[in-house]
Amino acid sequence: MNHHLKLLISPIYTGSKRFLAKQNRWTVVTAGSIGLVGTVAAFALAPSEPQPAVEIDTVLEQLSTPIAILDTPENTVFLREERVERSDTLSSLMNRLGIEDPEADEFIRKTPSTQAISRQLSPGKAVTAKTNARGKLHSLCFPLNGKEATLVVERDGEGFKASEEVLHLDMRTVVKSGQIESSLFAATDAADIPDAIASQLAEVFGGDIDFYRDLRKGDRFSLVYQAFYNRGQVVRTGRILSAEFVNDRKVFSAFWYQSTDGKAGYFTGDGKNLRKAFLRSPLEFSRVTSGFSRARLHPVLQISRAHKGIDYGAPTGTRVRAVADAVVEFAGRQGGYGNFIVLKHQGTYSTAYGHLNGFAPGIRKGARVGQGDTIGYVGSTGLATGPHLHYEFRVNAQQVNPATIALPTSFPLDASQLARFKATAGSLRALLDLAKQTQMAAID
User: Which CATH code is given to the segment(s) 77-166?
Assistant: First the structure.
């Protein structure tokens, strides 16, 4: 005789319908309560003696009325975190946070100190809120752009108050790698590398690689950099600690090092200073529209004459950088050059920048500038058919082709510093190797 074993499975409900609808997305903070979220109870009765064959029938019974075993009192606090989406408005964000509070909504929209919330809905930003069971706001935490601080909106009696709280940052070392398909920024975006780090990468290798003309499809890079986190979210990035760039099968490497006398910079693996005395280009990213030439048809004058400089095409307003530490020798209007700057560098070197749309603040005769500082902005003043930068490199006040002369380097490491540098570079090289292995595994 076959015995039937009946298994009764009944859902156990936990709390009100509002709670049931949200239970898979809320973190519930209560005092002295036991949560039975998502529990299923199974009960079975079996014969006391072993039987040769048992058939099991499963019977599902749906209760018509929920059995409430956990209530959600007014003092229950729901904590929710959401990341800002690209199409978000203040209303859609608050809705996803579970905030159903007209008074809070009015306070955030109309209070001057909370206007940053509507203006700074940057995609990916993590925002947290605490509400009660009915959606009344307890507090809202919103990270502010450009600050190491969070805007906190919290209930204060019958109303609300807003304040800024300084973030407690946690510095982490990040290892990333990527491959060039079209441009540097497209590759760093694909690898989820911040633009600030991409710009640093271009600066680190800017003395050896022209990131507009020299890049090749298939070029690879690996880097180790600092990032500062608050509650699991990147607030800002720090500096690149080490990097490797393979450009047209040629390998360039860089390691950050600060010597005991306070000098700091990037060095190759064998301790040679990577920083050149002069940058390869006064623009971060651009295209050469006219090179150095002894004879060229002038586009405005329509006569053939020497072009003793390099023209870089770029949109009006693009920042122009000082290619080396210098003193401003001239800043003003000069004939066909339009708005014009001449910088005097060490020794016999000077550089000139023409057709500028305007000058950076503080740029005047006698002012000191550092390598990479913004001195002006691309324009089309003077004899120019469109926005571009005319750049000249001069030796003893005579224009020369910067692409054909050997440029000096900066200070080298002495013997006493070299051993200390190699110890530092060794650990950073291991992290770079890890980044490369990760990239190769992804390609495979």
Answer: 3.10.450.350
Say if residues 257 and 264 touch (Cβ distance below 8 Å).
Answer: yes
What does the alpha-carbon distance between residue 35 and residue 55 come to, in Å, rounded to a whole number?
35
For residues 256 and 428, give the distance between their C-alpha atoms in angstroms, rounded to a whole number: 9
pLDDT of residue 58: 52
CA distance 287 to 235: 33
pLDDT score of 20: 33
Instruction: Kindly state the helix (H) or strand (E) to which residue 266 belongs, with its residue range.
Output: strand 264-267
**pLDDT value, residue 64:** 52
Distance CA 168, CA 165 (A): 9
> What pTM was estimated for this model as a whole?
0.54
Q: Give the pLDDT confidence score for residue 19 in this predicted structure.
A: 35
> Residues of the chain whose pLDDT is less than 70?
1-74, 285-307, 409-411, 438-444
Alpha carbon dihedral 239, 243, 248, 250, in 10-degree steps, equals: 130
Dihedral, 189, 194, 195, 198 alpha carbons, nearest 10: -80
CB neighbour list of residue 162: distance below 8 Å, 6 or more residues apart: 107, 111, 113, 114, 151, 152, 153
CATH of domain 287-400: 2.70.70.10
Q: Where in the chain do CATH 2.70.70.10 domains reside?
A: 287-400
Q: Return the closest-CA partner of residue 376 out of 314, 309, 290, 317.
A: 317
**Beta-bridge partners for 353:** 341, 391
pLDDT for 160 equals: 94
CATH 3.10.450.350 occupies which residues in the chain?
Answer: 77-166
Residue corresponding to tokens 């209560």? 30
User: Is residue 219 within 8 Å of 188, Cβ to Cβ?
Assistant: no
Q: Write down the pLDDT at residue 111.
A: 93
Helix (H) / strand (E) element for 427: namely: helix 415-443
Long-range Cβ contacts of 101-106 (<8 Å, 24+ apart): 101/131, 101/135, 101/136, 101/137, 103/159, 103/160, 104/136, 104/137, 104/140, 104/153, 104/155, 104/160
